[in-house]
């Protein structure tokens, strides 16, 4: 065989091999495309069937009445979670999106008798009816700046429950995890951090809460308060996302609690907030006395130098930035101030016994104010 014939034969072999390879590649691509198409179709079909199922009654044949309590101040998200928890709807998110799509609102607090055979529209109409209009049996007033132990005492005095039992319940991890599913936009994994003293510290909103029966359970009392916290936080949700320092509900409530504990009747909370922001920006510790008292776990008329040495993640004389969690509950004024600090150069402040607060930009100015307004009071 001549050299030219040999080269021609080799070329033909390679050409055949390339054609075979191309044919195999096309088959692989075609098979991969078909599989991908089937997967996408399956996902779309599965998603459609899932949503279609979630929109239907839980059990069209079961008309057994279920008592469902909607606490005062409950947000639509909370209501949806309560309905799912009581197995009145299959999926809380689907119910919530349905009410949004239909622009439904005006849900009323109260005790409702619902069943698993009800459609979404029937449930919505029931919740809007305001069928419960009972007289208030008693009220619980939770002031601003109260710590969880103090709130437990207030609840105990009004309900006959034991404050010790209330605190145990509020620290119970399984109950906390249950609440986290009910209030996912407020209660996050932050509250389970190992340094947190009480998971719900700072989360029981200060307000006056009416109750319509004589002996509510601990759960009913607590969930009314958490619903109010959720309602307040939702108002500031967009601003939280745009804030570098308090970019989560947990950090917001933590900062707000410091402001609340430092505030007096005559205090400009926005100025106090500005001091905290300015100190954090400069890498300075916050050095706020209420965190020392919280770390000590006891009230003192004066914080002494020896107290500042307490070894605690809450002691802002020793740590940088915010403590691991709130040290008390905060009212809406302090929550707003935590998001809207005044524009100042202040790095220090102190409060005189008459409630007046003095701000300063330097340590020298602060020491002068301390000598003038604090030392002279001793």
What report would you give on this structure?
The chain is globular. The model has no long low-confidence stretch (mean pLDDT 85). The protein has helices at residues 3-55, 76-85, 92-101, 120-129, 148-159, 163-170, 173-182, 218-235, 237-241, 249-262, 269-281, 289-296, 332-339, 363-374, and strands at residues 66-70, 110-114, 138-141, 208-211, 348-351, 357-360. Helix 2 packs across helix 3, helix 5 packs across helix 6 (163-170) and helix 10 packs across helix 13. The protein is built from 14 helices and six strands. Among the domains are: 1-55; 66-129, Dna Ligase, domain 1 (2-Layer Sandwich), CATH 3.30.1490; 237-377, no CATH class. By secondary structure, the protein is mainly alpha-helical. The strands form three sheets. The protein has a two-stranded antiparallel ribbon. The longest helix has 53 residues, at 3-55. It comes from Fredinandcohnia quinoae. Belongs to the transglycosylase MltG family. Its EC number is 4.2.2.29. One of its GO terms (biological process) is peptidoglycan biosynthetic process.
């Amino acid at each position: 065989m001549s050299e030219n014939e040999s080269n021609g034969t080799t070329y033909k072999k390679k050409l055949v091999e390339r054609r075979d390879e191309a044919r195999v590649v096309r088959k692989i691509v075609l098979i991969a495309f078909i599989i991908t198409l089937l997967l996408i179709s399956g996902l779309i079909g599965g998603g459609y069937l899932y949503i279609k199922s979630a929109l239907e009654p839980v059990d069209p044949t079961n008309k057994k009445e279920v008592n469902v309590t909607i606490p005062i101040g409950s947000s639509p998200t909370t209501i949806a979670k309560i309905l799912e928890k009581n197995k009145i709807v299959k999926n809380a998110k689907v119910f919530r999106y349905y009410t949004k799509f239909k622009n439904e609102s005006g849900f009323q607090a109260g005790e409702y008798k619902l069943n698993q055979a009800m459609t979404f529209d029937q449930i919505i109409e029931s919740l809007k009816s305001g069928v419960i209009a009972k007289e208030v049996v008693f009220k619980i007033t939770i002031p601003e700046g109260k710590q969880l132990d103090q709130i437990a005492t207030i609840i105990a005095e009004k309900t006959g429950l034991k404050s010790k039992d209330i605190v145990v319940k509020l620290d119970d991890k399984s109950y906390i995890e249950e609440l986290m599913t009910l209030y996912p936009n407020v209660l996050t994994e932050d509250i389970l951090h190992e340094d947190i003293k009480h998971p719900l510290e700072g989360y029981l909103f200060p307000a006056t809460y009416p109750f319509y029966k004589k002996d509510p359970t601990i759960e009913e009392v607590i969930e009314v308060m958490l619903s109010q916290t959720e309602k307040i936080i939702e108002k500031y949700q967009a601003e939280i996302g745009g804030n570098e320092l308090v970019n989560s509900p947990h950090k917001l409530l933590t900062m707000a609690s410091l402001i609340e504990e430092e505030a007096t009747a005559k205090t400009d909370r926005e100025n106090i907030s500005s001091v905290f922001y300015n100190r954090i920006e400069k890498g300075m510790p916050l050095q706020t006395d209420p965190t020392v008292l919280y770390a000590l776990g006891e009230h003192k008329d004066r914080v002494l130098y020896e107290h500042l040495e307490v070894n605690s993640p809450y002691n802002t004389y020793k740590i940088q930035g915010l403590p691991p969690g709130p040290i008390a509950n905060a009212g809406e004024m302090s929550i707003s101030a935590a998001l809207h600090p005044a524009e100042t150069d202040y790095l220090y402040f102190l409060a005189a016994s008459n409630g007046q607060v003095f701000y300063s930009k330097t340590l020298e100015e602060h020491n002068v104010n301390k000598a003038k307004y604090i030392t002279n009071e001793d």
